[in-house]
Amino acid sequence: MKKLRVMHVIIGNGFGGLENVMLDLVRQGDRERFEYFILCLSTPDVIRDKLEASGATVLDLGYGEGFHPGLALAIRKVINEHGIDVVHSHDYKPFFYTTLGCLGKRGLAKVYTEHSSILSMSRKHQHIGRLFARFTDAMVMVSRHLQQYWADPVGLPAERSLVIHNGIDVRLFDHPEDGETLKREFGLEGKLVIGTALRLNEQKGLQYLVAAAPAVKERFPDARFLVIGEGPLRDDLATRTRTLGVDDVFLFPGYRSDVSRILPAFDIYVLPSLWEGLPLGMIEAMLAKLPIVATTVGGVPEVLVDRDTALLVPPADSEALGEALCHLADSADLRRIMGERGRGHALAEYSLQKMVTTYETLYHDILAAK
């Protein structure tokens, strides 16, 4: 039987939850039925090695920021040259150009997954997104919050989209390394580690974590903040920590490809985001039995139960964030109980195989209907 050719379209100039989900779809997909391609609109940077190790055919178009009229035709050319059966775009920019490039291609299954980009789009771009949904076979949302946002204010009726939650390979968390040994890698032996792993950009609200740090430092002098990741705000965040006198309790070790391995070094996981879809790092933290402090944005309250598996606070509220962190820092028993509850919930609801099977069934159903 001829394998179906599935091509994922991403921007490709960074690594975060979106890229992780896409790679899991490729790595865990049924190679007996599918052949995978990954098309990057830009030139891959830190993600190139991961893309190539996935076993997919990796292609890149080398386009940078800004509007590129020729990009849609370049995508169409790739689809034609490689005989693609399913084109699956991730987030707004790939969706925009892929939709234009696929206009008039009747035998092609067109799938879009919204991870969170629509939340930061202008009204003009939202209007374009609603229009382009007409030319897409499946509009997939990673959370019910995103589905509702596309319905109002964007204007796409909820029945024209479906929700597929992100999943995690739980095997990565079955045999954790010793937390104190991992802390030693960062020079944090014996410290209370408040950690996070994310892109250092505006969306993640890290400036509010920095602003919350003085209150935490005053009450818990042995607390340390370990911020894993890279992004455009790294220098700004470092400056903020110096200004507030907390640069001695913050570590910015940069990008790590082994986040699942080093999560046991954390005592508390913090997610201070200003907007989200369904953050993958949050589910990984749950599987690692970490108590979580997170903001009530996007799909976060769909996953975390306040005062059961996490402490939830309003976004952009440094005082509330600091209070929640101190509350967990003050009780090892509470941290343990919340962590165990969180892992149980994540195991039941967010398995990787469930996500992969749902997408593969969707691909087949669309092509069968055509």
UniProtKB/TrEMBL annotation:
<keyword id="KW-0808">Transferase</keyword>
<dbReference type="InterPro" id="IPR028098">
    <property type="entry name" value="Glyco_trans_4-like_N"/>
</dbReference>
<feature type="domain" description="Glycosyltransferase subfamily 4-like N-terminal">
    <location>
        <begin position="15"/>
        <end position="170"/>
    </location>
</feature>
<dbReference type="GO" id="GO:0016757">
    <property type="term" value="F:glycosyltransferase activity"/>
</dbReference>
<dbReference type="Pfam" id="PF13439">
    <property type="entry name" value="Glyco_transf_4"/>
</dbReference>
<protein>
    <submittedName>
        <fullName>Glycosyltransferase</fullName>
        <ecNumber>2.4.-.-</ecNumber>
    </submittedName>
</protein>
<dbReference type="Pfam" id="PF13692">
    <property type="entry name" value="Glyco_trans_1_4"/>
</dbReference>
<keyword id="KW-0328">Glycosyltransferase</keyword>
